[in-house]
Amino acid sequence: MQINTKNFGIIEYNPEDVIYFEEGIPGFESLHNFLIITDNREDMPFKWLQSIDDTDIAFVVIDPRVFKPNYTFEIDEELKEELQIEDINHLLIYVIVVIPNEIEKMTANLKAPIIINAKNNRGKQVILDNEEYLIKHPILEELKNAYSNA
Amino acid sequence: MLILTRKVGQSIIIGEDIEIKVLEIINGQMKLGITAPKNISILRKELLEIKDENIKAASVNKQVLSQLENFIKKR
Q: Is B5 part of any domain?
């Protein structure tokens, strides 16, 4: 299968790789099918969550544990059921990154991670109760630190 | 802001047909039951902020990706 995307041109994908968001994501409730696009560079921590339903829409995402190794949250019964989670080791965790023109000011939404069950490719953006995690969490310094320690 | 004190099991009424009832309070978390007509939208406030944030995030373009790559290379 292929789609013509705004940012990446025509991309080929395997239908098995499509991630299904039953409720869409907040602000984009009608978009249900997404792909994770990974850069070939191994050291590139950012990935793209590309919509298949509206090919103009893509989000920059990152695994928050890259810059915040102790990022944790509880998975409640409701989520377990919705994503049919059998084993938390199947879960992929990403947060959406907002990148303004001044790239130094980029932030990640730690309050609302995207959780994907890689076993069945079902995903959901979840809102955490944890007050420590901000919707606009600056990430540049932490990213730099993570890489300088690597 | 109008401030009212309510106990578990007590309600407030807004207008003629919206009722908000305190169902349970555990560890500083309150469970509310809301009865309202179907056409009234009820959202957790964070959800609105997260919508806005997602909409901002979606307008990122490809140029930013190359900037990001440069940033990673520069380190």
A: no
| Chain B residues close to A48, C-beta within 8 Å | 65
pTM: 0.85
B4 inside domain: no
Total domain count, chain B:
1
Q: Do A135 and B53 touch (CB under 8 A)?
A: yes
Q: Which phi and psi (to 5°) does residue A93 adopt?
A: -120, 130
What per-residue confidence (pLDDT) applies to B29? Answer: 86
- pLDDT, residue A150, reads 59
Half-sphere exposure of A82 (CA within 13 A, CB side): 15
Assigned token pair, A124: 């959901």
CB-nearest partner of A147 from B29, B56, B75: B75
Mutate to test the interface with A, among B55, B60, B66 (most CBs of A within 10 A): B60
Helix (H) or strand (E) holding A49: strand A46-51
Residue B3 placed within a domain: no
Q: What is the pLDDT of residues B2-19, one digit of tens each?
A: 999 999 999 999 999 999
Distance CA A7, CA A27 (A): 20
Tell me whether B24 touches chain A (CB under 8 Å): no
Nearest chain B CA: its distance from A32 CA (Å): 15
H-state helical runs in chain B: 45-58, 62-74
Q: Could you give the count of Cα atoms lying within 13 Å of B18 in the half-sphere of its Cβ?
A: 8
